[in-house]
DNA primase
Amino acid sequence: MDDNKDIVRQATDIVDLAGSYLSLRRQGRGYVALCPWHDDSRPSLQINPERQSFKCWVCDIGGDVFSFVMKMDGLEFREAMEMLADRAGISLAPNPNAPRIEPGSPGDKKTLYAAMAWAVAAYHRCLQVSPAAAPARRYLADRSITDESVERFGIGFAPTDWDWLLRQAEGAGFSPAVLERVNLIAPRKSGPGHYDQFRGRLLFPIRDVRSRPVAIGGRVLPELVAAEQRPDYKPAKYVNSAETPIYSKSHELYALDLARDRAQQRDQLIVVEGYTDVIAAHQAGVTNVVAACGTAVGEGHLKLIRRYTDRVVLVLDGDEAGRRRASELLELFIASPIDLKILTLPNGLDPCDFISSHGSDEFVALVDTAPDALEHKLMSVSERMPTAVENTHDAASAVEEVLGTLAKTRVAVGEANSSMVLREQSVLGRLSRRFRLPEEGLRQRLNDLRKGSPAVAPKASPAGDMPALPPAKTLSAWEREAIELLLVSSEIALELTATLDEADFLSAAGRAVFVLCREQAEQGDASFERLMLAAASERMKGLLVELDERGRDRATSDVRRRINDLLSARRRRHEDARHGEQLAALEQGNLAETAADEAVIALFADRKRRETGPLSTDG
């Protein structure tokens, strides 16, 4: 893996890479651009061609070519490396233990991606020009979906023929086995051969964050159902692609490739339930909207969302089913560090119908005023439950339900979360007023539930990972100076890592970087490039870039003097710690008389040496 990383890194120029996404402007020895991760009015993103790094000081985001692609396209590291390898025309070294995969076979992912992209394009052309697609075009017009949206979302149509796609594939070079592997066709239940999976449906291509088609959602058309003239003909409203080697429905969100940039800029993602809901929102100018693909929102979706934002508004249909889903989803979000708000639309409307009748401004206003998940829970429980005076048993059940949720939230989030404390006070106050119960009693019951709830163990971080807070802000001045010096050269890194110890670094971020530098120095290369390749997390890469940039501003300073000052400060800190221990022992009377006298003399000697400097050793 390290060899692959190094080969891809050396073959990729960060200026060319960033320039393929952004408009760069030369500034001094580097380049600048408007940062894509916040509303930037002046170029805040700096590209360093010498170090092959980037940094936005406003967002506190930085890294190397891999970090850049991961952040821009929302990719995991392996995906970013594969993309950059493809871009550079590099074939990554295969896993020697993996079975050989024949190009063009059902096991070849490149072939599967190509087959899905070909099918989506064929269905899209069919929608645009085929007479058989007239019912689909009428349906889109009735739903006010424009030609521009049809093009933007790649909407298609599958004719009612049993083998339309199979016939098209004969000249395209894709075998039935490949089409079946991506769930475009299925084997006949009786006899040999296959049939088209999505026949007679309006098709919504599902694309990954790299805009590659990976699956399809197919909606039945009422006009075609009516044309069957069979009372018993009741096809499912939606048919969605099954899991395949290129598609996992629990890790994809419909239109995320189109919504991610706006979601990052607004620091908010709106999740709705249907494909047409997404299209209606985008068409109305609300472009930070996505949908789950034929499944409930789950943990995989949360990990995907967190690549772009920690703020989610879940918009549910206003029917009873939507209200039930709000309750089911709440506990999933509780254990996640995502700020979740839940919006239930009025009058049983879905987002598409609401936007059509009320407009996008009113939709956005509702989204912006949506209650957080706990408040939504409290409101929904309060709506269906009486007061304690009217029905004590039902009120007790309602209170227990809300307190149970609140107890789990606190366990998951942690005792130090001040916003959680304020939210807790608000919820307890509302419960007290709504059900006419003493707030102190509610707090006691909440504490009892917490004691009885199993503790949520913190998840282990990968080796070298760092706190979620911007790491540079957690470092002391001494730690920042130490790491800046470690980054000057491999020789200095080897010298300092042999002298310092990880215990000298009080922050987790500082310790992680020091350990990384020591490991690389022991291997003979602690250069900045090698450290960036070996860094275990994107936060660590960001910290390395930040401190390297700060250190380069002091490139003309006396490095040897800085090292001496650093070690002197370390020595004073150790002396202060030792003095503290000795003073504590003296105050507690834990030293024998002779030892106490010696400790006092040593303390005064150390203090005098600090005030006057070391005694001369000349002559």
